[in-house]
Write a structure and sequence with these properties.
Length: 131
């Protein structure tokens, strides 16, 4: 339970750091116009939110086996450079695919944190539109 909460907190903090970097790059702290400041805040939270959501969707695709054939092919290619070719971990793609079905990566922390950052961005957008 503590590990799951830690995933959410760390991911959210990384999103906030990226938002802060965008704020600094766009010059929020030297901005004197209130409307432009809220535009920068909207952009700053929207970009990391969308990136986190996209990473979450990418993990969902990987969990579904979308990239299994590509990963297996790359591993087989690099195994050609090993000294002993008989010590391959998976002899066939079917064996590799069955082993991958057991490995599922958690993805909800990425999607939920991304949605929270986009929601914060929408709040700033509402304020921006009311100015």
């Amino acid at each position: 339970m503590k590990n799951k909460i830690l995933r959410y907190v760390i991911t959210f903090l990384i999103g906030l750091v990226f938002a802060l970097l965008i704020m600094i790059m766009k010059g929020l702290f030297s901005c004197t116009n209130q409307k432009i400041a809220f535009q920068i805040l909207t952009d700053s939270f929207f970009v990391p939110g969308v990136i986190l959501i996209c990473f979450g969707i990418l993990v969902v695709c990987a969990n579904g086996g979308t990239f299994d054939m590509l990963v297996y092919g790359v591993k087989q290619f690099f195994s050609l450079f090993k000294k002993d070719l008989t010590k391959a971990k998976h002899k066939t793609f079917y064996e590799y695919q069955q082993a991958q079905k057991e490995k599922k990566t958690e993805f909800w922390f990425l999607i939920i944190d991304g949605i929270v950052l986009v929601a914060i961005s929408l709040i700033f957008l509402g304020i921006y539109n009311n100015i």
